[in-house]
Amino acid sequence: EAGVAQSPRYKIIEKRQSVAFWCNPISGHATLYWYQQILGQGPKLLIQFQNNGVVDDSQLPKDRFSAERLKGVDSTLKIQPAKLEDSAVYLCASSSSGTLYEQYFGPGTRLTVT
Amino acid sequence: LAKTTQPISMDSYEGQEVNITCSHNNIATNDYITWYQQFPSQGPRFIIQGYKTKVTNEVASLFIPADRKSSTLSLPRVSLSDTAVYYCLVGDLRGGSYIPTFGRGTSLIVHP
Q1: Chain A residue numbers touching B101 (CB-CB < 8 A)
Q2: How open is the CA angle A20-A61-B31, to the nearest 5 degrees?
Q3: Which of A10, A21, A43, B102 could be a cystine partner for A35, CB 3.0 to 4.6 Å?
Q4: Cα angle B38-B43-B44, degrees, rounded to a multiple of 5
């Protein structure tokens, strides 16, 4: 079974530029999560999708971050414009219905904002 | 208000049993307790999940007392490859749904 795929793995941008991350979840998984993990901290949930709908985005900085999940499969997370404090690893995870909190994570995208 | 409290770090030696305790005083009645493991430069990996009493799988055991206000992850006979950060998760009620919430985790270092 293929795991969660993310791209790119690394990205370096200057502040005020924009960036987009892509995630392809495990086939059949209805729930998709985007996390931000700053060095030395636990992952912080940015947004949770159930199929096409948003379950929670209370910690998503909506003035600069946006996310979408078209057709309930792939998802993209965008930052525009980026700030220095956005430097972090962005993790995508997915889970199937009925398996509470058992999430499968991708390798993450390491973003550096200079 | 932190949902979970864990020691920041622990040290152990190969072959020893390691117990990591997590405090979750405000856990919801119907919520589960989940543990993840994370190696450097990788995403977290699900280890074990439980609701009450004891759960065991091929990797670890999870002990949950009757009041469910804490839980203990037990790793038998650790090896160097068990050096990682371990996270305890419970749900955070937001907008009518329980959202799994990671804390800062426990950094376990296993020494030869």
Answers
A1: 45
A2: 105
A3: A43
A4: 45
All residues of chain B having their beta carbon less than 8 Å from the beta carbon of residue A101 are 32, 34, 49, 89, 91, 100
Per-residue tens of pLDDT for chain B, all 112 residues: 558 999 999 999 999 999 999 999 988 888 889 999 999 989 999 999 999 989 999 999 999 999 999 999 999 999 999 999 999 999 877 777 778 888 889 999 999 9
Interface contact B63, partner A, CB < 8 A: no
- Alpha-carbon separation of residue A67 from A29, A33, B35 (angstroms): 18, 10, 27
Residue located via tokens 């929670």 = A56
Both tokens of A96, joined, read 């199937």
Inform me whether the C-beta atom of residue B87 falls under 8 Å from chain A C-beta atoms: yes
Cα distance between residue B47 and residue B51, in whole Å: 14
